[in-house]
Amino acid sequence: MTEDSTAKSATAPLAARLRQRLRSFEPLYLAFLGLLAIPSYVFDSLAVLEIFEIFYLAFLWPFVAPLLEAVLQRGTDADEATEPTDWIDMGHWSEYAVWLLSIPLTFLNPFVLAQDFRQWLGTLLALARHRGSVPEAGDDDRQVSYRLPFDGAWTVVNGSHSRDYSHSWFPLNQRYAYDFVITDAEGRTRPDGAAASVGNYYCYDEPVLAPADGVVIDTFDGDLEPSRAGGFSHPFKRDIRGNYVVVQHAPDEYSCLAHLVPGSVTVEPGERVERGQRVGRCGHSGNSSEPHLHFQLQDQPNFALATSRPIAFDDVALEWPGAEAPITEPHLGADGNDAGARDVALPGDLADGTYRARAFLTAGQRVAHVGHDADADRTGSHGIGERRSDHAVKAGASRRRPASVALGRVGFGACVGGVATIVASIFVSPLTVAGLLGVAAAAAPLAGIADRSAHDADARLEHRLETGGTAVGVAAVGAVVAWYGLADPAVGFGPRALGASAFLLGFLADAAAGEYDRRRLRESFHDVVSPTAA
């Protein structure tokens, strides 16, 4: 932050100062104290530890913080704006209230709840994998140069390499993620006075592009999408990412493009994609309050287990419509530190933008890609600042093994069944819980029919393993709960302990499959590229 902006923050009004404090406040670490309540589920003599369950409320912070931000923003006058996103119309505060009031639905959707908890445990594994030293923006050791995953001018509504404006500093898998939307000159994401129908948002159904050459590792194209935004998301979503595409670009570099329109995914696992190729369209599926594109670079294919990697995009035109840039970019090196003007054709209303050969982005910027992928240079090295275009990935050569796919999905199904057991056993008997899990297991394969993106035989097999594996995991937990309800064994613990145990065992199975995939794909990546003609 510059000296001028620091001085302004010292004299800023109360609402502005509170907003700055809000960005640096991180209570999510307290959620781990809730784990101290787990022994009380097993041993009646430790029932006093149930008091630590109150720390689970910290998981609600990511939902509450945007509402507080919206309220405080309304208390900040235009001439008192201090945040780089103040120029963006983030929607009426009631839209955040709708999002907040929809939180109880999360606890009725075990798919979402299981994925949320898996992210937190995945963070512990990520810390162990990196020996406590996770990637930072100043340690940019990427092997591939990336372009923005869209054409035209978009706005960074969320995300940064800086903690204060990051997508979510914790958990680690989304630390350096970005949310992109399209705004008009007034910072609105849909026309003034237009209804919150998804089709009215400027970014809805816009093409989403591969940021670099690579191999598709995972896709999902059958999640549900509501017809209305304005804080609403679909209550029966099956993945917090909604519809998504995961592409491997290097041994430990995977891009994830999420919240796509149902039925818009144009690629499938094992397929080679080229830089700038369309892989889907921007939508409103998954955990989404309005249409937007979620993009992140991660170090492994499993979303919950991954560590987010900082990413500097190449050939970027950018501007700060609402404020002077308060974020100091990390040093990019001699080849990528060009911040001067350049005689290039910038898109439309970014004609006065600044060109950067490579740039880390921050919330509040409007950005556009200004490169020329079609006639990219096909010679030279593939280091940072240059396109990795001297190698082409062989289609279908790098993909997850069927055994690891099945194990991971059975583990995920056990996680789903586990959290459903924990929540449902508060209100109903174990036999009723078992019956509900049985119904869910039977319905899981039917729900998977909606995902018809796979045309390749191997991709169809992978899809069947995913939907069937989830059903098997849920059914296994249901069988154990049914046994408990029928036999009423004197084992000294209740159904909540069964649910917690099922979740942990399922997570370990999923983690084992994910780590196997990460290691195998890392080792095999160099074997699945072949030189191409210059």
TrEMBL record:
<dbReference type="InterPro" id="IPR011055">
    <property type="entry name" value="Dup_hybrid_motif"/>
</dbReference>
<dbReference type="GO" id="GO:0004222">
    <property type="term" value="F:metalloendopeptidase activity"/>
</dbReference>
<protein>
    <submittedName>
        <fullName>Peptidase family M23</fullName>
    </submittedName>
</protein>
<dbReference type="InterPro" id="IPR016047">
    <property type="entry name" value="M23ase_b-sheet_dom"/>
</dbReference>
<keyword id="KW-0472">Membrane</keyword>
<feature type="domain" description="M23ase beta-sheet core">
    <location>
        <begin position="205"/>
        <end position="299"/>
    </location>
</feature>
<feature type="transmembrane region" description="Helical">
    <location>
        <begin position="406"/>
        <end position="427"/>
    </location>
</feature>
<dbReference type="InterPro" id="IPR050570">
    <property type="entry name" value="Cell_wall_metabolism_enzyme"/>
</dbReference>
<feature type="compositionally biased region" description="Basic and acidic residues">
    <location>
        <begin position="374"/>
        <end position="393"/>
    </location>
</feature>
<feature type="transmembrane region" description="Helical">
    <location>
        <begin position="28"/>
        <end position="59"/>
    </location>
</feature>
<feature type="transmembrane region" description="Helical">
    <location>
        <begin position="493"/>
        <end position="513"/>
    </location>
</feature>
<feature type="transmembrane region" description="Helical">
    <location>
        <begin position="96"/>
        <end position="114"/>
    </location>
</feature>
<keyword id="KW-1133">Transmembrane helix</keyword>
<feature type="transmembrane region" description="Helical">
    <location>
        <begin position="470"/>
        <end position="487"/>
    </location>
</feature>
<dbReference type="Pfam" id="PF01551">
    <property type="entry name" value="Peptidase_M23"/>
</dbReference>
<feature type="region of interest" description="Disordered">
    <location>
        <begin position="374"/>
        <end position="397"/>
    </location>
</feature>
<feature type="transmembrane region" description="Helical">
    <location>
        <begin position="433"/>
        <end position="450"/>
    </location>
</feature>
<keyword id="KW-0812">Transmembrane</keyword>
